[in-house]
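User: I'm curious what two different proteins look like when written out as structure tokens. Can you demonstrate?

Assistant: Sure. I'll show them one after the other, since each token string lines up with its own sequence. Here's the first protein:
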Amino acid sequence: MLTGTAKEATDIHQSDNYLILRPLPDIQLLKEGILKGDIALLSRAITLIESTHPKHQALAAQLLDQVLPYSGKAMRIGITGVPGVGKSTFIESFGMHLIGLGKKVAVLAIDPSSNISKGSILGDKTRMEQLSVAPNAFIRPSAAAGSLGGLTHKTREASLLCEAAGFDIIIIETVGVGQSETEVRNICDFFLLLMLAGAGDELQGIKRGIIEMADGLVITKADGSNVQKAKAARSEYARALHFLPPAVSGWHPEVSLCSSIDGTGIEAVYAMIEKFRQHQVSNGYFDLRRKEQNLSAFRRLLQETLFQNLLSRSGLKEQIAELELAVTEGRQNPYSAVMDIKKTL
């Protein structure tokens, strides 16, 4: 059964997404499939919410409203780190450990998009060979596609669908550390920062702002001849964290070591996350953080929608194009150009 009119149900919807949905999906069918843990329908639902087509967006809003009461029970873990730190390897080892504990694990892996071709490799399933075939795991690679914060525009919404599908742990892997990477903090319960040892000046190799928002740090590749370097790095980061202002919740970020190859330290990482969860739940900050995230998501989506609606106004795109040319050629400064647009509005 398809939604909408017969014509709408057979439309071929062109979209700037890498996947195109056709025909229009049955929202009730998607909801029932998600609640039963049907991975195929969960994947289709995520494709729906990622679509930029107006008809898809309207259906996505309906679906999210219907599954909302069944979400919110999972632990959302955001994972980021410097290039080469081994995020995918760590996530596979960590995910397999969680599955061994009887958990259902969903991984929303964000791949960087090329500024030139706008394409992404989306190769996380090939990098996580064991986890990708585990019966209680779900890996969904998505393209960042120009989004700030190391996330896609709909990562939060995708995590809600995964929660409704019964996943206990939602792991969000971001594209890497950068100035805008901090947006991940707005959709996860625990922000885990992966670091390398022996990669130069330990405290200058990453922006302080990222460290200040991390709920926990893990020094990866702590095996073989690198163990001593990893221990030294742990001591340095522990000292650095000691001088940072304490979190409002009273949580003090911890630094741990692990080897994704032999699994050493993986259990300790999960113990740290559980300790954090219990601390936040006991003092009420877990729910408070979720409420703040909901409000942040509303404001972000509102800004995006208002911006798109403004651009659709007759003549505004043309005016912006003219002003962009004037600014580029140095005939007008950016500030006065924006003021010209403000007068138009």
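Here's a second, unrelated protein for contrast:
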Amino acid sequence: MKNLITVKYFAGLLTLLCVLPGILLAAPFTFVTLGDTQDISDKGQERLSGLIESINQRQPAFVVHIGELKGGGDSCHDDYYQRLLRTANQFNNPLVYLPGDNDWTDCFHSQFDPLERLNYLRKRLYPKPVSLGKTVMPLTRQSVQPEFRDFPENVWWQQGDVLFASFHNVGTNNNLYTDSKAIQEHLSRNTANLAWLDQIFERASSAKALVLFTHANIKFDAVSWQPTGFDSFRAALSDHVRTFARPVLFVHGDTHKHKIDKPLKYKRKTMANFTRLEVFGSPDLGAIYVHVHPDTEHVFHFEPVSINLSD
């Protein structure tokens, strides 16, 4: 009898050890997202530093800033991008930074060439296959593909059983203007975004959930007779979400109205597996802690934290 008990004990222990790696992969974690932190005044920068310090104290797995550390009319001088890098390195944990329209498309307001500023931004912010921040994490950039070598800002990474990816869509109608150079830039970048979208959903085939980031509000409420610079991306996203059939979280900024909702529909029926999260935006300052529990039904649990103007 003693030997039988011993055999059962070790058999149970062996079973536990076999399933333990799976348990570790599905371990919950937290990431933080924020953006449109545009107040460049001394008080505004002080408040942003305070927010960053509070994020550092909670030690999230990583942080994603969806773009814009200045307003559209503020200068696009080289000094701005240097300040952006200094701000990024205030984060103790890895930081992924996405371009917003105030980072390049709106630079004409301060007498700079938007396309030249976009090229400069790419060289300064995305020279290596790693994140920003004091502690970096590896990122796979779309630019490793020869046909998309000009798009290092589109990246993917993975945390446990959840895949994360970013896409370069920006406000001001995604740079789709009547200017021929702007139109060509939009078309090239949109082609890259659509290809990246296909690849990300294919890569996520075995993931338990998918998180997508972009700066722009891609106009989920747009109607067919009001075309936008986001229509093809939004349509492709809808198709992928419908076939993916697992939780997809879509994070953006741009319109400065923090919200969490389910705006994506198919044949007038809400796609329940799709959730939109819009971050806080200036003049409001805040961050959203996203607690990820891969083995639960809804996966994502949200904790918005805002800083009052009087703070």
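A detail about the second structure: The chain has one domain: 31-307.
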